[in-house]
Amino acid sequence: MDFNFPISKPSNRKDYYIQRSIEMLPGIITWSFLIIGLYLAFRAPIAMAIFIIIFDLYWMVKVFYITVFIIFGYRRIKIWEKIDWIRKCEKLGDTDNIYRTVPEIARHSISAVIPSWRDLYHLIIIPTYKEEIEVLETTLDSILNSDYPKNRIILVVAFEERAGEDVKERARMLEEKYKDKFFGYITTLHPDGISGEAKVKGANASWAAEEARIFLDEKGIKYENVIVSTFDSDTCVHCKYFSCLAYQFMRNPKRLQCSYQPLPLYNNNIWQTNSIVRVIMTSSSFWQIMQSVRYNKMVTFSSHSMSFKTLVDVNYWPRDMISDDSIIFWKCYVLYHGDYFVEPIFLTVSLDAVLADNHIKTVLNLYKQQRRWAWGIENVPIIYRAFLKDKKIPLHKKISKGWEELIGRISWGLTPIIIALFGWFPLWFGGDKFNQTVLALNLPKVLGYLMTFAMFGLIVSMFLSLFLLPPPPQKISFFRKIIMVFQWILAPIVAIPLGALPMIDAQTRILFGKYMEFWVTEKVRK
Fold first, then answer.
1. What does the pLDDT look like over 495-521, one tens digit per residue?
2. CA-closest candidate to residue 246, choices 328, 288, 305, 302
3. Are 319 and 200 in contact, with CB atoms under 8 Å apart?
4. Helix (H, G, I), strand (E, B), or coil: what is residue 275?
5. Of 149, 255, 278, 452, which one is least surrounded by beta carbons within 10 A?
6. Domains and CATH numbers, the chain
7. Which helix (H) or strand (E) holds 481?
């Protein structure tokens, strides 16, 4: 198959200038918008006020449908949790029981179904750096406690050589405990300093995948019959995830052209961290739940699954990019010339929320993690260059996907600032002439009404967050439980410093060519 995906560091001058021009674009747009907004507040406060009212009306409508999508997503989670997916796998031959979630897939025949779900293998890759063995054991135990036959699971625990000598002892202890529990248990040690690689998770995961490929070749297992999942070291999977994934994979005749995305919840230590972290991390989970209902706009995030054959065909994850979990989707999208999708799995995987030794460090680490996620802005120039080179992707898909990726990153940084600050700029800087107008007198009331309606989404988020919480530890006080309800009043307060600013930080860094290095979130459990 014809495949030529751009590398992140172009070797020729033409591609370099294209790359840098597109890298600078988000930062230029964001800072231009902020500067022009401030200028209009002085020079054209009436126009600025009208814009704010229109924008807030638009956002009010958007909050409403986002909230509706989150409710739909939550209902699907509860429905899917009750399904016996093993039984559905066994009955897959009965096409009357097969339903589809992706319209593009629904037009195709079911003739490509794998004869038996017992011919299917799950390959699970867990890259790790300096995580404590207790964190890794929790992850491996969740896989061990899943309902999928363990003789069809191949586990790869991928360590980093640069993490020091301690990793060898952790690797030995884990292998001794788990090596006989699965069909295959592989320990890999990713060498440091390989040419063309950066110190990123994708390099480690790709090294592990290549080692797993050698194992599959030795066992004579076809790549088409292997689903590969890459999990963060703290990922605890739902006990039905692998059986559900097997069913969704087998009943999909275009299974090689799909990634499969579970819904992340940051629940492992949610009761131990502080309210600011809980609000930010839960909001991130709600965004993923909302996106799962709008599956045509989904891109892989964090832990995800796909066909191993497709992974081999795209030459694994990028080895020199921070945002490996999302760029792998775009590599596959280009491989299949736009005929590639993300199919949601309405089951949850639980990860660690940010937690450090004290509250200040916890919030600082949260900012760093949000900035690392925001560094997905590095995808934009790679995607655009790929679209320029691939003539087989339909033009309308290039435009829509390229626009969604760019505008999504920009709105991430601008929306909280527009909502929280821009509405007051005309009143602060418009002068006496503007402040005496009817518009100025009514602007605070109008904004107040709109924001009051937007609180509908906040209230729904508050209640749903309680339903998604794991059972509290026995020693948690009643006061801490009450805080879980009232912590949502922090949402408007933290939206700018821990929502908008990390994205603007990332855009500004890439604007000036100050490239980030991969930062591993510290895993702390109390």
1. 999 999 999 999 999 999 999 988 888
2. 305
3. yes
4. helix
5. 452
6. 86-265+296-344 (3.90.550.10)
7. helix 478-486
